[in-house]
Amino acid sequence: MGMANQEAIQQFQSLMDKVDEPLKNSFKKVHQGFVTETLTRFLKARDWNVAKAHKMLVDCLQWRVQNEIDTILAKPIVPTELYRSVRDTQLVGLSGYTREGLPVVAVGVGQSTYDKASVHYYVQSHIQMNEYRDCVVLPNATKKCGKHISTCIKILDMTGLRLSALNQIKLLTAISTIDDLNYPEKTDTYYVVNVPYIFSACWKVVKPLLQERTRKKIQIMDYSSLPHFCRQGASGSSRAVAAANGTTTTNCFSLDHASHQQLYNYVKQQAELDESDSPPLKQGSIHVRYPEPDPEDAKIVKTIESELHKLGDSNGLNNSFSRVRVNGM
Predict the structure, then answer these.
(1) Which Pfam families match (predicted)?
(2) Whole-angstrom distance, CA of residue 199 vs CA of residue 189
(3) pLDDT tens, 145-178?
């Protein structure tokens, strides 16, 4: 690390020493004992501009305090059947680890429908997975590897991606904004697989708008190098998929998968330990305030929307798009 970067971290640390006590307490939850590494993440996200990185982190901590994010892992989505519906329609799962010890997270982008619960449950679930990753998965990986593990790998499976994805763009924008502003630099590399034409068309116009740092993180993989869960026919929300040896293994997207069982049991255990909480209600999601997206990110979303509409027009789908309604939030 260069001298200039070290000075930036020291300046950043001095500014954080002056924040209010509630923000300091929340910051402890964020850095998990790795203060320098956490400050570095926010500095990278703002191109090492100390003032901008400080504002970003303070805004993040205020968002956490105002929305009680520090205790979100003690608020299970109940009943279990409802949570299963969320998992079956928001396809995200821990599929394993790289040789270097980084968690590998699979995301079924093309087959996630987000249509079995309110958007608040999907946002709550997404934040809980982020918090569980940071509080449990990454610390366990760090302990196992004997070195600090602070990032993961994400495999974005585009199987089944269609123009109707425009229906969910507002929800996906909210989730992406939450990640960008409150969990920066947590993904080492994005591998995009099973790419259909619709993605290729959007990628051509979006790629020039991305920062170079972000572009370098995105890799398009060919079919021969895909992991088994990304092979055609193996993706989806079914509870089990056939393994290569002919046996049956649990789909990493499913609630039945070990990683999701561990997460859900952890949240329920934390709820039992939290004496200040009343017993979980049968229904009732947590309403988290969605931060306003960065202007550059908002521009990218508009570009994607425009490109999807163009594709719809070129395929004679303009009438159906005129009836598209973004799910209420």
Answers:
(1) CRAL_TRIO, CRAL_TRIO_N
(2) 18
(3) 999 999 999 999 988 888 777 778 888 888 999 9
